[in-house]
Amino acid sequence: MRIFFSALFLLWIVGITNAQRPKAPNVIIVYFDDMGYGDIEPFGMTGIPMPSFNRLASEGTRMTHFNAAQPVCSASRSALMTGCYPNRIGISGALLPGSKIALNPEEETIASILKKAGYKTAMVGKWHLGDKAPYLPLHYGFDSFLGLPWSHDIWPRDHQGNLITDPKDIRFTWPELVLLDGDKVIDTIKSFRQQQGLTRLFTDKAVSFIKENKRTPFFLYLAQPMPHVPLAPSEKFRGKSELGPFGDVMMELDWSIGEILKALDHENLSNNTLLIVTSDNGPWLNYGDHAGSPGGFREGKNSTFEGGTRVPLFMRWPGKIEAGRTYSDLMTNMDLLPTIAAAAGASLPKKPIDGLNFLPSITNKNTRGPREVFYYYFEQNSLQAIRFKNWKLVLPHKSVTYLGAKGIGGKGNPVSKKDFPLALYDLAHDPSETYDVQHLYPEMVQKLMGIAEQAREDLGDQLTNRQGKNRRPAAVVNSTVFNIFLE
């Protein structure tokens, strides 16, 4: 009898301990495609009602100096998933059908570290880090996946859905766009009308996942394909805005955020959910009225000027992250993995990463963020700029410029390339990178040149013929080779 009561007492103690132990927070990342800094009302957009984005701003913290690691799809997504500079892990550009590379399955991702920590994990939407097994989400820590292997404009059709008939057009060689459930093709998207249902399909799947997993810690990665062109608002939102198809799409994406918030509220999960909403890179400006806004920053997607990498970020975790706060410390999408790991009590990847833990600074307004330096790499491995605090040194390079290239009605005009010389900008006083002040601050130029040399030593630099000591290979895929840069 004494043994029985002793065992009962121990169970009681364990029960109390477990009850007192805080439940690991759910984590949701919503990742929009090509949404620029100025595309939502809390960051300056006008003419489009956005109650859900405004709610994020009032109930969470709005980050104003948040940068994607690179200004293009696959590279940015690899940085988000792994906490590494894309060139460290061999990823660059936007992977096309038949690409010879994919994200290396040996790299640990947000999903894999959270899965090890006991989380249920799911991805919904656009993957774009490999187009066939074993380079699809189920092989990187996700328990389930419903979505697209790449961008929804990668199909043998134009942006109006018409079949490409010119064999000289690279799109002529592309396969049809497919919808995947795990590793299995469950549908083929052959019409623009089918694309109009993608935002709702992925939103509904995300909401279902939240409701089905409300009793266990979960990680949800919702990667919406839009507002990347072609713009495909559903019938419910078509013609509802004052800004044409782009405004209609943004209204539908605001609705999608609202559905996520509504599900969290309904299931009493809001206070124990870290919700992160951001974009992969800046807007594709040569599509003009079908593209978004860099919010006053220079250039856009495919450029390492601020319009290409600076994107909106919201973080909402009631009771932990201050409501209505504006956070202006330098931060990148690489920093989300270690920040999430700290919040969840998960272990960091075994291999070195570049991300830094921002949890102390975003949960305590008196603590400064840990990042002072950011390397602006692009293309395969070109170091094009360095940031240190509020200073940005643009290194000599050739890059796209969107001046005079804006199209209308969904037709993108060709972009040109130009040589950009060495220039120093003070982003505190000149966020649009207009006034070169290198002659006024030669000591700052010298300091940033020293930081650039550290980057080249570590990661290399094609522009100066440096290999770098600490790069890791991407996965090599045995398939036909296509150009992996989509401009």
TrEMBL record:
Residues 25-346 form the Sulfatase N-terminal domain. Keywords: Calcium, Hydrolase, Metal-binding. GO terms for molecular function: arylsulfatase activity; metal ion binding. Pfam families: Sulfatase, Sulfatase_C. Signal peptide: none annotated. It comes from the Bacteria. Belongs to the sulfatase family. This is Sulfatase. It comes from Paraflavisolibacter caeni.
